[in-house]
Amino acid sequence: MSDANARIDEIVKNNDIVLFMKGTPLFPQCGFSSRAVAILEQLGAPYESVDVLQDMDIRQGIKAYSDWPTIPQLYVKGEFVGGSDIMMEMYEAGELHQLFIDTGLATQG
Amino acid sequence: MAMPASEIEEMIRAALPDAVVEITDLAGDGDHYAARVTSAAFAGKPRVAQHKMVYEALGGRMGGVLHALQLTTAVPN
């Protein structure tokens, strides 16, 4: 396991909800990351974010880690959930909220 | 750093011959697309796996040449 992979693994395992994104929730640097943030804000569950633009190793490493070619990437309870398109589909279907409820990260309502 | 919509469609169809591919050029600049791909090959597969099948069809262009492809996958009714 490479250094970047080990660091990513630690971040993913130590945060219930973590979004790897371009920029920060306050200043997203890409429309897809902005959309991912908006969905998480809407759901109101606390989440951690990692700005991949601040770290080249993580920016490249995260794509190998999940075998997923793009950023943002959402992880819940150590599992890769998807990018912004999947987040949007799941959000619209109520599945993302349900996932947070099922994993004890949000309450019904 | 752009790719014509027809090329995207051809590549997806080459990998998923039954696929119905609808592509929208979001910004009219040949660089920001939305694609809706409907294929029986997606049946029973989680969304991440479905999207990966499309990304694989695009042979590594996703995240590179193709920065902005908003993807929706579906199984035919």
Please report which band the strand proportion of chain A falls in: under 5%, 5-15%, 15-25%, 25-35%, 35-45% or over 45%. Answer: 15-25%
Provide the number of structural domains of chain B.
Answer: 1
What does the main sheet of chain A amount to? 4 strands, mixed
Please name the CATH architecture of chain A. Answer: 3-Layer(aba) Sandwich
Mean pLDDT of chain B comes to: 91
**Number of helices, where a helix is a run of at least 4 consecutive DSSP H or I residues of chain A:** 5
Structural class by SSE content of chain A: alpha+beta
Order of helices and strands of chain A: HEHEHEEHH
Percentage beta strand of chain B? 25-35%
- Succession of helices and strands of chain B: HEEHE
Largest binding interface between chains = A-B, 16 and 13 residues
Discrete helix count of chain B: 2
CATH topology (fold) name of chain B: GMP Synthetase, Chain A, domain 3
User: What general form of chain A does the structure show?
Assistant: globular
Fold and architecture overview:
Chain A has helices at 3-14, 31-43, 56-66, 84-92, 95-102; strands spanning 17-21, 48-51, 73-76, 79-82. Chain A is α+β, with helices and mostly antiparallel strands and 109 residues long. Chain A has one domain (3-102): Glutaredoxin (3-Layer(aba) Sandwich), CATH 3.40.30. A four-stranded mixed β-sheet of chain A has the order 2-1-3-4, sandwiched between helices. Chain A starts with a helix and ends in a 7-residue tail after the last helix. With 77 residues, chain B is α+β, with helices and mostly antiparallel strands. The relative contact order of chain B is 0.26. Chain B has one domain: BolA-like (GMP Synthetase, Chain A, domain 3, 2-Layer Sandwich). Chain B contains two helices and three strands; from the N terminus they run αββαβ. At the A-B interface, strand 4 and helix 4 of A face helix 2 and strand 3 of B.
